[in-house]
């Protein structure tokens, strides 16, 4: 796939219908994230809307939704959420491309989406927690588990990774399950309007047509150059035979002259 078709596929995802869905998805994320932060739950629940819009509009729309979610959570709930926008963007891309591959249509595919999202979020969020916040944020109840593991293991990286993996397996499992139920409940007439790969396929077809047109023009130009460069061959023998045929005006003239001499 060329860079032009890739860019065209990305921009095609941001249709008017997709842009209308972004505030709704961000609102769903804010409700879940704010509720978890207020109740100090060992969960986040801030990616339900991102997963739904990844199924409807595509990976890059989901990435934008995840970015906006963390920005608004940092404004209304806790500034701690802002660096984790990287995790939300990466998870949105991973879920979107896995859904585009058709994995969300089967149960085992949904399980793969869940595990992949949990793994990506675990790695990125753990790195951010260790490098930016020193191992704990205090946003939810996971910090207590992390502190207990630090005392037991004496290694902050392993402790953060372990607690984050456990938290993300539960959190992303609930998130993917809720998103799967929502997508399955959407009417097919409405769902068909958000075929995320249809626009990209059309873009690929348009790009292929343009390449074929360019190849056709080049072939036509090459053939015209070849035809113009070839010399015109004249069959002198055929011309002589044609000139000596009995029906030509020259022969008639000779016969008329011979008749007058007689």
Features:
262 residues, mainly alpha, Arp2/3 complex 21 kDa subunit ARPC3, 78% helix, disordered C terminus
Give the topology.
Elements: H1 3-13, H2 16-39, H3 48-56, H4 59-76, H5 85-100, H6 107-133, H7 142-153, H8 156-185, H9 188-191, H10 198-229, H11 236-243, H12 249-261
Structural description of this entry:
- With 262 residues, the chain is an all-alpha fold.
- The protein has 2 domains: 3-140 and 166-196, Orthogonal Bundle (Arp2/3 complex 21 kDa subunit ARPC3), CATH 1.10.1760.20; 231-261, no CATH class.
- Helices cover 78% and strands 0% of the residues.
- It contains 12 helices and no strands.
- The longest helix is centred in the last third of the chain and has 32 residues, at 198-229.
Q: From the helix content, strand content and strand pairing, which structural class follows?
A: mainly alpha
Percent in helix: over 70%
Strand and helix order: HHHHHHHHHHHH
Report the sheet with the most strands, covering strand number, pairing sense and barrel closure.
none
CATH topology of the largest domain: Arp2/3 complex 21 kDa subunit ARPC3
DSSP strand tally = 0
Radius of gyration: 36 Å
CATH architectural name of the largest domain: Orthogonal Bundle
Quick synopsis:
This protein has twelve helices and no strands. The protein is mainly alpha-helical and 262 residues long.
């Amino acid at each position: 796939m060329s860079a032009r078709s890739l860019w065209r596929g990305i921009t095609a995802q941001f249709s008017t219908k997709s842009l209308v869905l972004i505030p709704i998805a961000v609102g769903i994320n804010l409700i879940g994230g704010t509720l978890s932060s207020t109740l100090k739950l060992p969960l986040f629940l801030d990616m339900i809307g991102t997963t739904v819009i990844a199924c409807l509009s595509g990976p890059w729309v989901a990435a934008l939704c995840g970015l906006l979610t963390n920005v608004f959570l940092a404004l209304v709930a806790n500034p701690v959420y802002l660096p984790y926008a990287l995790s939300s963007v990466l998870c949105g891309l991973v879920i979107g491309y896995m859904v585009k591959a058709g994995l969300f249509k089967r149960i085992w595919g949904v399980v793969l989406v869940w595990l992949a999202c949990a793994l990506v979020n675990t790695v990125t969020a753990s790195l951010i927690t260790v490098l930016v916040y020193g191992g704990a944020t205090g946003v939810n109840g996971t910090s207590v588990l992390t502190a207990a593991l630090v005392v037991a293991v004496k290694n902050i990286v392993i402790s953060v990774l372990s607690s984050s993996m456990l938290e993300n397996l539960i959190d992303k499992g609930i998130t993917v399950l809720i998103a799967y139920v929502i997508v399955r409940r959407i009417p097919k007439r409405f769902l068909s309007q958000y075929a995320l790969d249809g626009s990209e396929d059309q873009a690929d077809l348009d790009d292929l047509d343009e390449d074929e047109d360019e190849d056709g023009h080049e072939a036509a130009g090459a053939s015209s150059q070849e035809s113009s460069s070839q010399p015109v061959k004249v069959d002198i023998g055929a011309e002589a035979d044609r000139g000596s045929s009995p029906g030509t005006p020259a022969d008639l003239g000779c016969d008329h002259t011979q008749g007058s001499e007689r």
